[in-house]
Design a protein that fits this description.
Blueprint: H1 24-41, E1 46-49, H2 52-59, E2 74-78, E3 84-88, H3 91-98, E4 107-110, H4 124-138, E5 146-148, H5 153-161, E6 166-168, H6 170-176, H7 182-205, H8 212-226, E7 230-238, E8 259-268, E9 271-272, E10 275-281, H9 286-304, H10 312-316, E11 338-341, E12 348-352, E13 369-377, E14 384-394, E15 397-400, E16 410-412
Parallel strand pairs: 1-5, 3-4, 5-6, 10-16
Antiparallel strand pairs: 1-2, 2-3, 7-8, 8-9, 8-10, 11-12, 11-13, 13-14, 14-15
Length: 419
């Protein structure tokens, strides 16, 4: 009897009593446990975190939008201690009310300068470092290195001026985030399922006269309606803009016979997608179909080698070298034949490409989740095909999360042929 593996569950947005869905308490415990274990295994006495994905991973809190990249939020995790958080003004009070997994006394209002808008001479950074140094002293780790992930130069200089030894913690946190739990994989699957539906909407809308930015608006609206917490980017690329790939969208009018590809990047409860699909509008030429078939061949070849124990160099080796598809070197072609980890961040480990993987491969492990991307320029000189699949490494091999049909080139709203 032939058996097939069940799809990865994408059960819906609601919590229910009749199915096992995402257990957010378990998710929080898993993430904080991984962060603490990483700290304990390091030479650091504490982690001081500004990267908002690392802050979410350790404190289970989030502010997106305008404050997500202002380098104002930060968290401190000391050996044997619980996470401490400094957040934007009243957000700290909100956490005390609605985030019971954080100790209320560990939720502070904080302000460092909004990426320099308040000059360091105002003294906010000096007082913040003085407070952090006091907390490190209380925890008995003030003489140990402090691991920092990303930091403004002025804050780094102030830490050094006050005698703190700063080392890189980003490598340690990325390693901690590498293996996804059952709950993380379910959230990643749900995020992909939302994009499955958006691609159906795009197929129905994609016809001559619609603009690239119209598709961006359509996709963004649908994602937020379905529960997305952040639409990070929608690449919409068509016609002569396909080759070379510009990695953005414009207001270009889509025309009959265009090849068009899209990348939908959003997050659901923090967990992200990176999900390309390519279509031809009304009709497809032989060169467009050939390019798509080649991109699909490269994709299938890379998925076929995915399993625990395989090196990322082995995955990258099945993709063509940059010179084989029109680029001078791997730096020029970076991101076209490409793999990258997915989680709270868009580009986590492992990063898979000929640029880095041949020199420093990473061994694939069960629980890794990453996107694989291929790109093939068409012989016409301006069209191109772009495909992306999200993959989970399981005990049984790769499981694909991105389910909108992509084995063959889809022609949207095909033109009627009259005899």
């Amino acid at each position: 009897m032939t058996t097939t593996m069940r799809p990865m569950p994408a059960p819906g947005h609601m919590g229910v009593d009749f199915e096992q869905r995402v257990d957010f308490d378990r998710l929080r415990q898993y993430r904080l446990g991984r962060a603490k274990a990483s700290l304990e295994a390091s030479d650091c006495g504490a982690f001081l975190l500004f990267d908002f994905y690392n802050i979410r991973y350790t404190t289970q809190t989030w502010i997106g939008g305008a404050l997500g990249d202002k380098m104002t939020r930060y968290a401190l995790l000391t050996r044997g201690g619980e996470p401490m958080l400094w957040d934007f003004g009243s957000a700290a009070r909100h956490h005390r009310l609605y985030s019971p997994w954080l100790q209320p006394e560990n939720c502070h209002a904080g302000m460092l300068g909004l990426r320099g808008a308040i000059a360091p001479t105002a003294g906010l950074m000096e007082s913040a470092v003085r407070q952090i140094k006091g907390l490190l002293t209380e925890a008995g780790v003030v003489d140990a290195p402090v691991g920092v992930d990303i930091v403004e130069p002025a804050f780094l200089f102030e830490m050094q001026r006050q005698g703190l030894q700063v080392v890189d913690a980003q490598q340690l946190l990325l390693d901690a985030r590498l293996i996804k739990s059952t709950d993380e994989i379910m959230l990643l699957t749900q995020a992909a399922a939302m994009v499955d539906g958006v691609y159906q909407d795009i197929v129905e809308a994609l016809k001559p006269g619609i603009r690239e930015n119209d598709i961006v608006a359509l996709a963004s609206k649908r994602l937020y309606e379905m529960g997305s917490d952040q639409v990070e980017a929608i690449n919409a690329v068509s016609g002569e803009r396909c080759n070379p790939h510009p990695h953005n969208f414009s207001d270009r009018l889509i025309r009959p016979g265009d090849q068009a590809f899209f990348d939908i990047i959003h997050s659901y409860n923090g967990y992200r997608t990176c999900y390309y699909r390519t279509f031809s509008v009304g009709s497809a030429t032989a060169s467009q179909r050939d390019a798509y078939a080649k991109a699909r061949e490269w994709m299938d070849a890379s998925i076929s080698v995915i399993k625990a124990g395989v090196g990322t160099d082995e995955v990258a080796s099945v993709w063509p070298a940059a010179t084989e598809f029109g680029f001078a070197n791997e730096m020029d072609a970076f991101g076209l034949q490409f793999g990258h980890g997915l989680g709270l961040g868009l580009h986590e480990r492992p990063i898979i490409s000929r640029l880095n993987s041949m020199r420093e491969p990473i061994e694939l492990q069960v629980g890794m989740v990453f996107a694989l991307e291929t790109y093939c320029p068409a012989a016409d000189g301006f069209s191109a095909a772009r495909i992306e699949e999200e993959v989970v490494v399981t005990e049984d091999g790769p499981r694909v999360l991105t389910l909108f049909p992509a084995q063959d080139l889809v022609v949207t709203n095909p033109f009627a042929v009259h005899s």
